[in-house]
Design brief:
about 60 residues; mainly alpha; 2 helices; rod-shaped
Length: about 60
């Protein structure tokens, strides 16, 4: 795993946690911020996955 894969997945988890806390507390802003962080994390992890595949091919 490269650093983009790790950071991306950690950001995804952090975002999911914020989303759940936002739902429980009834805080729409936290919920939406969590959703956005999940998307950012997923994008970064996908970028890391692509880098790993390219490196594997070489």
């Amino acid at each position: 795993m490269n650093k983009d894969q790790v950071k991306g997945r950690l950001t995804e988890v952090k975002g999911k946690l914020k989303e759940v806390v936002g739902k429980v507390m009834g805080n729409r802003t936290s919920r939406l911020t969590g959703k956005a962080e999940q998307i950012v994390g997923k994008t970064q992890a996908s970028f890391g996955d692509a880098k790993a595949r390219l490196k594997k091919r070489q």
